[in-house]
Design goal:
Layout (H helix, E strand, L loop, with lengths): L1 E5 L4 H12 L3 E6 L13 E4 L5 H8 L4 E4 L12 H16 L3 E5 L13 H8 L3 H15 L4 E7 L1 E3 L8 E3 L9 E3 H13 L6 E6 L1
Parallel strand pairs: 1-2, 1-4, 2-3, 4-5, 5-6, 6-10, 7-9
Antiparallel strand pairs: 8-10
Helix pairs in contact: 1-6, 2-3, 3-5
The chain binds NADP nicotinamide-adenine-dinucleotide phosphate.
Pfam family, one: NAD_binding_10
Protein name: NAD(P)-dependent oxidoreductase
GO molecular function: biliverdin reductase [NAD(P)H] activity; riboflavin reductase (NADPH) activity
Length: 208
């Protein structure tokens, strides 16, 4: 499969690219700074671009089977419009290039899933993560109504732990406390979703 990966220099994105390459996919990495790819740099096709630029993403998308996003704001708790702008760019690019598959990393607790979250989760989502979640909610809704073959991935708190492969994934999961899942497992789920039809036009809540 030919994947266009957004956010390939981030910790989840790096796992995703590594996994995709090991499974035989070819990967184009749309990155602001190719140096951030480190040892992945010579195994992917890097495109230096901004994921919020419709022109940049459209230029990169042609010829791919899927667009996969692990974009994020790193340690910042301010969205700065990243998710709304990048989702608009990705949707436009996908339509223009005829790439129907879009796998998008969001967060559990965004949009309607806020109501499903535990009391400790709600406290974090409505305060610290408020700006990020508001922007993600708009982005996720625009993807759901895009007409594309989308999957929105909604993980709980992310860790840097190893892939366990024993996580839960469903349209809805019961929540208690503030559960987590490793970025490596999230990447594996996203890669599997891009390759299969099971999560087509569905939002997947995933957690350990
Ligand atoms: N932390 C948690 O507990 C948690 C829980 C659930 C979901 N999530 C979500 O999971 C996602 C991934 O998080 P993460 O910690 O693995 O990654 P991250 O550190 O947020 O990495 C973000 C990636 O996005 C890229 N990026 C940001 N703005 C860009 C732009 N304008 N153009 C191109 N690339 C851009 C960054 O590139 P640069 O290298 O150039 O900065 C980096 O590759 C995020 O959306 C996050 O909100 C996090």
């Amino acid at each position: 499969m030919k994947l266009l990966v957004l956010g390939a220099t981030g910790p989840t994105g790096r796992h995703l690219v590594d996994l995709a390459l090991r499974s035989g996919d070819s990967v184009t990495a749309l990155v602001r700074n190719p140096a951030g790819l480190g040892d992945l740099a010579d195994r992917v096709t890097p495109i230096t671009a901004d994921a919020t630029s419709p022109r940049d993403v459209s230029a990169a998308a042609a010829g791919h089977d899927a667009i996969v996003s692990a974009l994020g704001r790193g340690n910042s708790v301010r969205a700065d419009g990243l998710f709304t702008r990048a989702s608009a760019a990705a949707i436009g690019a996908a339509r223009e290039a005829g790439v129907s598959r879009l796998v998008w990393l969001s967060s559990f607790g965004v949009g309607h899933t806020y109501d499903w979250s535990s009391t400790p989760q709600k406290l974090i989502y409505s305060t610290l993560l408020r700006s990020l979640y508001a922007d993600k909610a708009i982005a996720d809704e625009s993807i759901r109504s895009s007409g594309l073959d989308w999957t929105i991935v909604l993980p709980t708190r992310l860790t840097h732990g190893p892939a366990k492969g024993t996580y839960h994934a469903d349209d809805r999961l019961p929540m208690k406390g503030n559960p987590s899942i490793s970025r490596a497992d999230v990447a594996a789920f996203m890669h599997g979703a891009a390759h299969g039809g099971e999560w087509s036009r569905r939002s997947a809540v995933i957690s350990d």
